[in-house]
Amino acid sequence: MVVTAVVLNSMSEMSSSTRDMRLQLRKQRALLQSIVEAPDCVGTCEAVVQMCSALDSGVFPRQTSRWWIKRRSGGTWEDLRLSDDTTEDYYKEKLRMSRAMFNQIVAACAVHVEKIVTHYRMSLPVEQLIAFTLYRWASRETYESGTSAFGIGRATGLQDVCDVTAALLNTYPDTIKWPIGRRRVQILHAFRDKGFPNCFSAIDCTHIYIDKPAGAQSDNYYDRKQKFSVQAHVVVDLDLCILDVHVGYPGSVHDVCVLHNSNVWRRAESDGLFGAPPENLPHGVVTRGYLLGDNGYPVKCPWVIQPYGGIFQGPDEERFDTRQKVARGGV
């Protein structure tokens, strides 16, 4: 009897649950039928389908990626053409300049770089050519790697660097020059605020890495870091503006030799470089101008001020070296 009661109870529960399911299905069917019979149902469905199709075809722009989403690389040139939250940082990372500055250079140099469209080929965009040259200078990558990232051939890349260099020299002939007038006064005041009155700028040499030179004594270009390079002697102010540059000596040449053969040395030795009003410094020193340099420059050069250096320094020497390194930190 007990077993029979349990079975009957289970069957009644199953039948009640089945009735509930059937009732729920009837309600859903009735609701769906009422929606279908509504006058705006077909139009709404068609509008949804058209909206999905438009989004898929790219008619409406997709939302730009947020800064925390890593950019999908399609090559350096393709990434530079994108416009999203990381574009400005990407330009500074790859080209060492803002996008606005890049556009300004393109607008100024386009007439010198633009190629003629022929029956045999379409010319590359001016933006792509200038971007490759700037990227090559900023990254120091090989031509094989750089041209691959920009989708151009190696021969095109070699010629492009020459063309863009000539265009920049023609467009900005007076950008690198020794300061005069108001600009010189501003530089002198800036260095005076750093504790160096009558200081014009800071000087240093750096190495520009190159491929192994063909048809020349390669040992001369082999520097102390076991790489092929040429020396670049640069003079800059506190605003990182280049005032003088001298490039071309092999990487094995010492900084002093580059300085002795530069235009800065000739002008400084002939008293035609500085010309500021005389300034009385401690210990009876009178100067009309000088540059800040590191310990690689000769101590006997009166117009290049080096740090004391050494391990055992007094408080005054240590304070001077700290200020001197901070003031010439830009170079």
Report on this model:
The chain is elongated. 17% of the residues are buried. The model is unreliable at 1-11 and 65-73 (pLDDT under 50). A 5-stranded mixed sheet has the order 3-2-1-6-7. It has a two-stranded antiparallel ribbon with strand order 4-5. The chain has 2 domains: 76-171; 181-327, no CATH class. The protein has helices spanning 2-36, 41-57, 76-81, 87-95, 99-113, 126-139, 143-150, 154-171, 181-193, 255-260, 263-269, 315-327; strands at residues 199-209, 229-236, 242-250, 279-281, 285-287, 290-292, 304-305. It has 331 residues and is of the alpha/beta class. It is built from 12 helices and 7 strands. The longest helix has 35 residues, at 2-36.
**Count of distinct structural domains:** 2
Low-confidence stretches: 1-11, 65-73
State the end-to-end CA separation.
102 Å
Global outline? elongated
Strand order of the largest sheet: 3-2-1-6-7
Tell me the strand percentage band: 5-15%
Q: State the order of secondary-structure elements, H for helix, E for strand.
A: HHHHHHHHHEEEHHEEEEH
Please bin the fraction of helical residues.
40-55%
Radius of gyration, whole Å: 35 Å
- State the major sheet: 5 strands, mixed
Overall average residue pLDDT: 80
Keywords, please?
disordered N terminus; 5-stranded mixed β-sheet; elongated; hydrolase; alpha/beta; 12 helices; single chain; two-stranded antiparallel ribbon; 12% strand; 331 residues
